[in-house]
Structure formats: C-alpha cells, structure tokens
Amino acid sequence: MKDLSGVTLGSYRLVEKIGQGAVSVVYRAYQPSLERWVAVKVLDPAYVDQDEQFIARFRREAKAIAALRHPNILIVYDCGEQSGLEYIAMEYVAGGALTKRLTGDPFPWKHAVGLAIGIGHALAFAHSCGIVHRDVKPGNVLLPTEEWPLLADFGLVKVRHLEQSWTAPGRPLGTPAYISPEQALGGEVDHRTDIYALGVMLFEMVTGQVPFQATKTFDMLLKHISEPPPSPRALVPEIPEALEHIILRALAKEPDERYQDMGDMVADMEALGPFSAATRPSEAAEEQASRFTAELRELRPLLRGPHFIIVNSGVPVPIPLQDEVVIGRSDPATNTLVDVDLTSLGGIAGGVSRQHARLVFAQGAWTIEDLDSTNGTRLNGMPLHPYEPQPLHDGDQLQLGQMVLTFHVGARSQGAQKSASAA
What we know:
The chain is of the alpha+beta class. 29% of the residues lie in helices and 23% in strands. Strand 3 (24-31) and strand 4 (36-43) form a beta hairpin.
C-alpha cells in the first residue's frame, strides 16, 4: 500500500505514518475543523478487495466500538470511505504503545499488575457490551502516561475470516505470540480468548519474555496448543505465588479452565494489595501530580495567586482573581474570549476547545466543570460529565483534551479573594 502522507480523507489531513499492520496503516492526521490531532487507520484496498459484506460488517462494528466510553478504551471518532479507501479516525496518543516499554527486562511486578488491571477493566466493559477484542497485545495498548493504559484496535480488521483457520496462508488474524489455543486451532472465539491474551501480556511484563518463543509462526502456534507455559516464578522468584496462580489460570489451554469472566481476573489482581488502586488512572494521575508539585516547591513562593502549571513544560499560567474563570482558546474570528487562553501554549495541538472548562470559586472552595468540550476534561484521570462541577484541590491534575495541567492554589491572601468575590 502506497504512503498516503499529505492526502486528505474526509476532514482529516494525513501527516505521517505512525504504525503499520498486516492489513492497515495508521497515520497521525490533523482535523482542521476541530483543530486537533487524530490517528487515522486506513485499510489496505487489496485486503478489502471490494468485499461489500466485509465492508458493511466493518462499518457496523466500527459504530459499535465508537459507542464504547471507558477511561481505559481509546476513543473512536469516525469511520468513512473515500476513493475506495476505508478508514477509521481515532484519538491520538503521543505517548505511543506499551511495546516500546518492553525491552526484555521485567517490569516491577506491581507496575505490571497495575497496567493489567486497567486493561482488564477495559476488556470487562467491552465484554459486557458484547464486544470481544480478539487481538490483545502490547501494540494495541497505548500509554498517555506510564501508568494509564488505553486499549485500542478492537478487532475491526479481523472480522472477515473468522471462520477460516489461523494457519491459512496469507491470512494473519492476530499476533502469534499472544493468541489463544482455540485461535491457533481455528476454533470458536469468545471473551475467554481475551483473558488468555491478557495472561500472556502479564507474563511478559513480569518476566521480560513471552511464555512461548519460536522463530516460525507454525511452531509458535503449536506451543500455544500443546506446550505448558513455564513458571513465572522460576524466571523471576520475587513474583508472588498468588500472581503466578493468576497468570497460569489465565493461560489454561482449555477455555473452561480459565477465568470465566474478566471481572474475576481483575478482582484477583486487585486483591494482591492496595497498590492496585494506586495504579489506576485516577490515582496514578494524582500521584504524578503530587510528584510534580513537590518538584515545584522552589517556584511556589513566587506564585502568589492561583496558577496552572503545564506539566510537559513547567510553564506557569496565572488564573485571574475572579469568581468564574473560563479556560480554552480565544478566537477573534468567532468572537470567543476566555479568561485562561491556552492557544499559544499548545492548546491547538492538544485538542483544547475554544470554551473548554470553567473554574468557579465560591464559599472558599474551587470547582471545575467541563463545558461540553470536544475532547473532554479529566480530573486526576477520571472523565468529567459536562456541566457537572467537581471539587478542585491544590495539586490536582487536569487534562483538557491531551493537554495536562497541575492546579496550584497559590499563596494569595483571603483578603484578595474576598475582594474578587465582592467585585
């Protein structure tokens, strides 16, 4: 498939290739109408091959997946067709995939389990909506932060050949290192296939290697079908016995011997210790904000009024002394004026809406609410519902689209605040 960089599909201008699979290419693209970066996956026309039944099912599944809303699932914005090219537009994550972090060295097991819990929550939610992923692997887990996984690519390009064998020449339906025995045998696939794949990923994260290794695809498939997985604790002795039990149960050859529900596997991982809650998106963001606030101790005395700190750059952004503060991007062309203007600070590339969110100071306390923004607002990793104010505290982290800010109350006097309230 030729490089489509520079081509416009629908409202998306393809800028550069950022990934390639067996049947599709992913581009970083710009959507001028909403002034945001997106990821656009384009299917190889040779694969689609004018198969109208496949195209209809592809579009139907794209719509179903676009309806999924979960903190650990990548957002699908749109799908379309132009000049014979089928494409999907998705949320763009600059942090890249989990694959980049897998260097052959084991993760600290608590960090690995924290990531697996987030992925497990995403899969449990998808399963409850009747959607099976079918290709859970590190390349399909994106990381906006080091401890916040987003699951992507819900099997949209794999629906055409579900009835064919996994060993059929030229028809790869997944990644051999992570597929379940029933997939390798061309058998029926259900949600327990995703449980097996998550078990493989968890094994890899805590040991630094996948459970089965082979140079040929066929040999890899045979190992998944017939060879018992090695003991994770034999490779990394400090792994808890309970964690090894979770991994090996998820890797059972027979689906009936695995966890029967993703929620049960997540519950067992969470039971390993209180660390699991701390590595979920909300707590991870809060912990990151605390670390960042600690690094700004020398700056704090200089910030007498309330400020945002842009996490990526450390740039302080003052917040006006008034009871209501609108955050977004001023635009003279549309007569849009905001109190905290993020236009020149990365707001356009970060997907910040013109009127994105509002701060309110009342009765000595701050609140934050999303103004039905295009890319949403997150408080300490959790999405805000539009027009539903939430308490905002010193050190909290806000994510407006993909722009991350730390809130700092500042050292301004009560008199200054009272004066603002009286104005």
